[in-house]
Amino acid sequence: MSDILEGPTASWLQCYTSNCMGESEVDQIISALKNDGLVLGHNGTLRWRDLPDKPSVLHQPEKVNQQSIGQEDGYEEEPLYVTASELLGSADHFDGSLRLINFASPPAPKRSEAAMADIVVDMKFKCNDKPEDISDVTIEDNHVSLWYFSRSHSAKSRGLDLLDVRAVVRALSALIFSTVEDLGYDSDIRRIVEKDQETQKDQIRYVYHVGDRFFKTLRCRDEYDHLHIVGRATRVWEVVEVAGFDDTSALPNAQLMVLRDVWLEHGSSTEREIQHMIFERCDELGRDFPAPNDDRLHDVDDALREVLRQRLKDGSYRELFLTIEHDHRGALSKPLATGFTPVPDGFFDLLYIYREVKRAGSGPRQVSTPRTSDPPVSPIFPVQQASAAREYKPRQHNFIVYREVCSALHELEDLHDVVQALLDALLALQILFMISWIHRDLSTGNILFYRGRGKLGDLEYAKEFNLSVGRRSSDPKTGTYIFMAFELHAGVRVYQDASYSEDIDAIDQLEAPTPASLAIRHNFQHDVESIFWILTWLVFTHIPGQNCVNAAAAMFHSGSPEFVTSRLNFLTNHVVCHSWLATLRPDLPPILRKGLLAMRVILHKRYINRGNSIGDISSYSPIYGRIRERLEAITASVPQGAVCLVRPPPPQVGVRSGYAPYTETLSNKMDAPEDHMLAPHKAASLKRARGSSDADTVSEQSRAGKRSARG
Question: The whole model's pTM is what?
Fold first, then answer.
């Protein structure tokens, strides 16, 4: 389903601007343009003085001068202006723009007409129809389109004629006289420029208004990718509390904290609200801990049962989760305009890469985002779940401030620390299981390491496990693809019923499966399986000096047509799993291979033994203890310093930017195999400067293959 919608210009203006221009105001503007000689009128007909006919008629190919760019099918001038973001490699070419009158940007980057953050609306002119060139206002010959970009959807107007003076005046005046909030700026965020104390150079920072408090960004810890527009987008900053927008000095004794900036569906619970519900349920369970024969404690040994009981009783389970200091619901994206319907996907294939080229990192006006879309699935495993009609719900800006400044798993230098964090995350998952909740979004970016222990973060998509209510969302949003359980991204179950009768007379009596019986619902084991994939990914990609490039590419390059079958084989075929683990560095402790092999067996057997009884709670309870034993065996045999991991360097901060710039070109970004599927905070390990490693080899092989294919 396309995220791009198209509809009437009048509806676009009514919905996506402040819509404060009436007919009398339009008449006054046209009258002023007439007085200036820019608009001519004759017998009630208005026309532009300098544009009596369509541009394609005025600019014939034979009129092109030597400095212009010639096209076989027409004429196109070089854009008049160029802007560059503070992010390296990000630029936009345009022919006209609407800019802020008051702004807080440093001088424009070299070769730029203005700072990108201060350009509210840019405009592009083309004599030919070239849909890959997309801007806020596009003029293709005499056809004018207005564009709206947001986290929930993007909307393109139709039916506006450049030669229609009144229509053009109405559209431009609606944009000019709209509030900055209606044009996409967030009043809860202010962009400032400060001198960096170390470099004494200008640096961009942001001040967030979070409820009744203010926080200033110091360093970007987590940046989202820029290949997609629609969906959830997350930035994570180190922040310090300040007095306000106008006094940005740190408050006395202010502690370094972390702010998470994310867009969620309007009406959905915030992470703080979800955490509060979870903690309430945990406290209730601590006061009335279940008996040993409870299904949730089936086959759980005495030691682990006592750990769970004590954690819930004394409230120490809270140490397994992040401490939320403050949060705030911010601005809303616009609702869907009346009369807008989806545009076929093919026409706008390149739209999703547009916004990074245009305004990446330009401050409050955030318009790009990663999302977990549905990439191609191997035809061997067709997705069996019917997608519901897409709901274009408004999204709301959410700010969450955490007390702990943690490290993500992919930032750690020691395998021992990684496994310890996974052990603590597994205990947090088991506590969620005890209250019948699932996390649904496990990744290396939300299992965190703090002062020697692990913490589980990002509860925004956690929910109660209840088969009698709910459905799989048609708006993909949960999970990092390469860490998701196989069943979730393949759309089929690991377990396949083979108990059919061979009697030919009974064959036609088999009931056809219903959509409900084929649906894959996120369950408790899916969260545990993510732990397995996270550890496998880190072992295959973060330990230097290995010869496992093919295995790593097969399992963690989700664009590969072998991705689904490779992961199924690794999960369910002991021979395949053993052979790929044999490609790891031979001097690694043997327990590492044995532990991953054992976890594979545990997961596979549980799927088979459970069959179709996914509502059987007792079938999940043993898995936590079984996986825990294997992780504990690894920590016991892999002490601190035994297996070092490759850690990404600190973010390379630009001269005037408060966040890490991207040095890759857009072409290189599209060629990269998996580093951008993870989103930059999950891909940093694949982009860092380091010695030769498997991730680099995968990337270089992918690029070399594509260069060869292009000739």
Answer: 0.81
